[in-house]
Design a protein that fits this description.
Elements: H1 2-23, E1 42-43, E2 58-61, E3 67-69, E4 74-81, E5 99-104, E6 110-116, E7 127-128, E8 133-136, E9 147-153, E10 163-164, H2 166-171, E11 193-197, E12 201-204, E13 211-215, E14 218-233, E15 236-244, E16 248-249, E17 255-258, E18 286-290, E19 294-297, E20 304-308, E21 311-326, E22 329-337, E23 341-342, E24 348-351
Antiparallel strand pairs: 1-2, 2-9, 3-8, 4-5, 4-7, 5-6, 6-9, 9-10, 11-14, 12-13, 13-16, 14-15, 15-17, 18-21, 19-20, 20-23, 21-22, 22-24
Bound molecules: zinc ion.
The site of zinc ion has 5 residues, from loops.
Length: 374
C-alpha cells in the first residue's frame, strides 16, 4: 500500500517538475491557500529532534474543542487511540498521543495531530481537503492540558524518524505557525456558548461546592447558568454559576464555575461572547415517595402555602433548615418542589421527614441518590 502510494507520489512530483519547466516564466494564476494552520492557538513547546523520547513536533496551545484542520489535502493514514486509554480526556496517560490522526499528502509528506478531545472526525483511508475539520483539541493521552501536538514528516505520517521541525516546514508552505494565516473561527459545540475567562477558574460538582478541577483561562464553552452562592473579589461579584466541562480534574464534565471569571461583563451578569444572556439550566427532577400529605411552605419552616399529596412526587433540590420531628423520627432537610394544591404552588418547600424509606436527616431520591443542594 505505502509503496505504491510513494511510487504515485514520485510520479506526481516528476510530472509537476516537467510542467514547471514548461510553465517557466509564465504568470501563475491566483490560488486559494493550499496549506493552512492546523489550529488557532499559540506555540508552546518546540521541536526537539527525532531521537527516541525527543519531542517530535510542536505544541500549539488552544482551548478544548477548538477545531483541528488538515493543513493540506491528503489521505488519512491513522485515526485511533495511541494511549492505553483515551476514554477520559483530562485524565493524563503515561504514554502516547491520545486520540490522533495521521495524514499523508500527495507531495510525499505527512502530518500528525495528537491529544484530541474525542474520537477523530475522520477515518483511515478517507480523503480530506485542505482546512477540513479532522477533530477537536483536547488533552487525551500523555498530555498535561488541552493543546495540539503537531508533527510534520518528510515522509509518511507514521514514521517519527522522518519528523522535521514544523515551523520552517510550514513556513516554506506559506504558513506561520506563530501567527499569520489562520482558518476562520467556528461555532462552539452544539448546545454551548463561547465565553472568555480572564483567569483559571476552580470547578465544582455543585455551585459553590468543593473543587473538583480547573477551567483554564481563555476561550471556553458553557452550557447554561443557575443562580447560586455569591463569588466576590473586591467590588466585583457574581451570583451566576455556569455549567461547563473542565480542562483538568475528576470529574471534569458537567461541573460548575462562577460567572465571576467572565472577563467583559459587569456584576451579576452572565452573557456569552456575543453579548447574549446564557440560558438557564433546566431544573433536574428527582423522584421521591412521600408517606403522608406534607404541608408545603414558602420557605423552609415558613408559612404553609399548600399541600404535597402522599405518593410519588418529584423534588428539585434540598437545603438544611429547621428540624421537623415526630416521636424519634426527625429531619433537617427541606426539599424544593411543586405542590399539588395551594397558592403559590411552584418552588415551595416540604420537609424531608415525609420521605418514607430513609433515616433521620437523610434526603435521598427513590434510587438512593442524595438529592443535590439547591
Ligand atoms: Zn507535544
Amino acid at each position: 500500500m505505502v509503496k505504491s502510494k510513494l511510487k504515485r507520489a514520485v510520479a506526481a512530483l516528476l510530472l509537476l517538475a516537467s510542467v514547471g519547466v514548461v510553465q517557466f516564466g509564465l504568470a501563475q494564476p491566483a490560488q486559494a491557500a493550499t496549506w493552512v494552520k492546523p489550529v488557532n492557538g499559540t506555540l508552546g513547546q518546540g521541536f526537539g529532534g527525532t531521537c527516541s523520547g525527543c519531542h517530535h513536533g510542536v505544541d500549539i496551545i488552544a482551548a478544548r474543542w477548538t477545531p483541528i484542520y488538515a493543513v493540506h489535502a491528503g489521505v488519512v493514514q491513522t485515526s485511533r487511540c495511541g494511549s492505553p486509554n483515551c476514554d477520559i480526556d483530562g485524565s493524563p496517560q503515561t504514554s502516547g498521543c491520545g486520540w490522533y490522526v495521521g495524514i499523508n499528502h500527495p507531495d510525499g509528506t505527512g502530518t500528525l495531530y495528537c491529544h484530541m478531545v474525542q474520537r477523530p472526525e475522520v477515518s483511515v483511508g478517507q480523503s480530506v481537503s485542505t482546512g477540513q475539520v479532522i477533530g477537536y483539541v483536547g488533552t487525551s493521552g500523555n498530555s498535561s492540558g488541552p493543546h495540539l501536538h503537531f508533527q510534520t514528516h518528510n515522509g509518511a505520517s507514521n514514521n517519527d524518524n522522518l519528523a522535521v521541525n514544523p515551523v520552517p516546514f510550514m513556513s516554506a508552505r506559506g504558513v506561520n505557525l506563530a501567527g499569520g494565516s489562520t482558518p476562520p473561527p467556528t461555532q462552539p459545540p452544539a448546545g454551548t456558548y463561547w465565553v472568555d475567562t480572564f483567569a483559571a477558574a476552580p470547578g465544582s460538582a455543585t455551585p459553590g461546592g468543593a473543587q473538583t478541577g480547573t477551567l483554564y483561562a481563555g476561550r471556553n464553552y458553557v452550557y447554561c447558568r443557575v443562580w447560586g452562592p455569591n463569588v466576590q473579589v473586591g467590588s466585583a461579584f457574581n451570583h451566576w454559576w455556569l455549567k461547563t466541562d473542565l480542562d483538568s480534574g475528576s470529574p471534569w464534565q458537567n461541573q460548575w464555575v462562577s460567572a465571576y471569571y467572565l472577563s467583559r461583563w459587569g456584576n451579576d451578569v452572565a452573557k456569552d461572547n456575543n453579548g447574549n444572556d446564557i440560558p438557564g439550566c433546566a431544573a433536574t427532577k428527582y423522584t421521591v415517595d412521600t408517606f403522608a400529605d406534607a404541608p408545603g411552605r414558602s420557605s423552609p419552616g415558613g408559612a404553609q402555602t399548600g399541600t404535597l399529596y402522599a405518593g410519588t412526587n418529584y423534588v428539585y433540590c434540598r437545603v438544611w433548615g429547621p428540624n421537623v420531628q415526630v416521636g424519634s423520627s426527625f429531619n433537617h432537610w427541606w426539599l424544593k418542589t411543586d405542590l399539588d394544591t395551594g397558592n403559590p404552588w411552584q418552588n415551595q418547600w416540604v420537609s424531608a421527614y415525609y420521605l418514607s424509606r430513609w433515616g433521620n436527616d437523610v434526603a435521598k431520591d427513590n434510587s438512593g441518590v442524595d438529592i443535590p443542594a439547591c
